Automatic annotation (TrEMBL):
<keyword id="KW-0472">Membrane</keyword>
<dbReference type="GO" id="GO:0005886">
    <property type="term" value="C:plasma membrane"/>
</dbReference>
<keyword id="KW-1133">Transmembrane helix</keyword>
<dbReference type="InterPro" id="IPR007401">
    <property type="entry name" value="DUF454"/>
</dbReference>
<feature type="transmembrane region" description="Helical">
    <location>
        <begin position="80"/>
        <end position="113"/>
    </location>
</feature>
<keyword id="KW-0812">Transmembrane</keyword>
<dbReference type="Pfam" id="PF04304">
    <property type="entry name" value="DUF454"/>
</dbReference>
<protein>
    <submittedName>
        <fullName>YbaN family protein</fullName>
    </submittedName>
</protein>
Amino acid sequence: MKTVLTICGSLSVALGVLGIVLPLLPTTPFLLLAAACYAKSSDRLYHWLITNKHFGSYIENYRAGKGIPLKAKVTAVLVLWVSLFLTIFFVIPLASVQWLLFFIGACVTGFILKQKTLQLSEVPHRKQQTE
């Protein structure tokens, strides 16, 4: 089970890193999933993830109760519903499964939107070097 969680965590990190540069891919949810997977499977990878200088702040902000950036929330909900609509209308022929997917999507959307939104004033800004 630890191997499966480590693989899932690593895939989530890869998707989270891609989300930094790709506008339609959310970063924070994937990094939170990776942290959860690593916390159950590998102390070394978990520590590496939460102390990483590039994306450790995403997890730190969420764990500190500061929330998720608005861009990440909007992107997560948008990607969720685009993929759900494509699946519901073009892949799944059974109406009962379509309704189930719609219900799950509504619950996930509600969960994402209930999370506190990280305010720009709470994001530490890098000090500008003056020479």
